Amino acid sequence: MQLARVAGTLVATRKDEGLSGLSFRVLEVLGVDGRKSGGYVVAVDGVGAGVGEVVLYATGSSARQTTATRDRPCDAVIMAIVDSWEVGGEEVYRKTPAGGEWAS
């Protein structure tokens, strides 16, 4: 699993039948310190994540193991919305009602 921030939504009106009914999000990949680590990923949204939220996502064959994506042609899936995380005993991030707050 990896960390990312939802940067946007992707809409594809023409797609493989196996992807019908799924929502897609554009994810900006984050490091464990909460900083952008470079790169973007398009992922199926299995949990209803919104723009700006920090999420956990999986790629590869693991992406096809969730209820929403089982046996579907996808390579990345959002599987959790992050409430908080800490590294070395220090809080890096905590979700707030406004969408998130990064520790300084």
Commentary on this structure:
The chain is mostly beta strands and 104 residues long. It has one domain: OB fold (Dihydrolipoamide Acetyltransferase, E2P) (Beta Barrel), CATH 2.40.50.220. The chain is 0% helix and 47% strand. The protein is built from no helices and eight strands. The strands form two sheets. The chain has a five-stranded mixed barrel. A three-stranded antiparallel beta sheet has the order 6-7-8, with no helix packed on it. It starts with a strand and ends with a strand. The model has no long low-confidence stretch (mean pLDDT 88).
Question: Could you give the topology of this structure?
Answer:
Elements: E1 2-10, E2 24-30, E3 36-45, E4 54-59, E5 76-81, E6 84-87, E7 90-94, E8 101-102
Parallel strand pairs: 3-5
Antiparallel strand pairs: 1-2, 1-4, 2-3, 4-5, 6-7, 7-8
